[in-house]
Design brief:
This protein is of the alpha/beta class and 286 residues long. The protein contains twelve helices and nine strands. 39% of the residues lie in helices and 20% in strands.
């Protein structure tokens, strides 16, 4: 069989298993096996027996709905490549909008202090540290398994970046979790899915529940976390919180209720879906 036929056959297997993007996933798995990019697959004349056997094995794993990122062991997020696997939430492309927004917000701030709440694998914290020159980034995570992945990903970065990231094991709902920290920017991708939501197998079976669910209304972490944000954020500093498609209004209301924030805005992703809410810490009145 030609490489094209092998790839097409694998895509058919994945499609039958209910994978959302069977052709893309088949190509990515094949590229992983042969050590090429997807674009370079056209230059691959054939597979060795060992490569073909390994490819079929990986396709079978993906057909069980094991996440592609777990199978290849890594995911690109913004400006960094992260290792991921069982025990940690797999970063999504949509959250890169939060990273991009954060980079722009502090672009003109000298040596900005950044806080990433519910850091998980470290995606936002490490991408911001790598992208924003001179930044000091504080990453907060409560789950011991996720902390292991966060520290592993931090260890993979150049020393010049590693020395600007501080990891805090702790609960973001504790207003004292970042005692003594004063930040120019706070970002958060917290557990926000309402319990009972129907989820794809890749999420329901492989992402840790602690990183997914935010109570009946999706707000059980976000609402108490706002007190932490208000205490940490400097007057005029910016915050952005990712949320469920259905809870943007609740997040905006929670920020408004605290009376510590202004300029509360709903931000949409490229598909036009409400993705995160941003605000500024209200400046002190003279």
């Amino acid at each position: 069989m030609s490489v094209h036929e092998i790839r097409r056959e694998a895509a058919d297997v994945l499609a039958a298993a209910g994978v959302d993007s069977p052709g893309v996933d088949a190509a990515l798995l094949l590229a992983h096996v042969v050590g090429r990019t997807v674009g370079e697959l056209v230059m691959v004349d054939g597979l060795t027996d060992d490569q073909l056997s390994r490819f079929h094995q990986l396709v079978r794993r993906r057909a069980t709905r094991e996440p592609l990122q777990h199978i290849v062991g890594r995911v690109q997020f913004g400006s960094v490549e992260l290792e991921v696997g069982p025990g940690v939430f797999t970063p999504r492309m949509e959250t890169e909008l939060l990273w991009s927004w954060g980079c722009k917000v502090v672009a003109a701030v000298p040596a900005p202090v950044v806080v990433d709440l519910c850091s998980g694998s470290g995606a936002l914290a490490l991408a911001l540290a790598e992208s924003v020159t001179g930044s000091l980034v504080h990453a907060v995570e409560i789950d011991p398994d996720a902390l292991t992945w966060l520290r592993r990903n931090l260890s993979l970065l150049p020393q010049s970046v590693r020395e600007r990231v501080v990891v805090h094991p702790g609960d973001v709902r504790d207003p004292n979790v970042l005692a003594g920290v004063s930040a120019d920017l706070v970002v958060a991708n917290p557990p926000y899915i309402p319990t009972g939501t129907d989820l794809p197998a890749e999420v329901a079976e492989f992402d840790p529940a602690l990183a997914l669910f935010g109570g009946v209304d999706g707000m059980s972490v976000i609402t108490p976390m706002i007190e932490t944000i208000a205490r940490v954020l400097r007057p005029g500093g910016a915050v952005a919180i990712e949320h469920d498609d259905t809870t943007g209004g609740l997040v905006m209301a929670a920020l408004d209720t605290s009376a510590d924030f202004e300029g509360i805005s709903q931000m949409a992703d490229l598909a036009g879906r409400a993705r995160f809410v941003s605000a500024r810490r209200a400046k002190m009145k003279p």
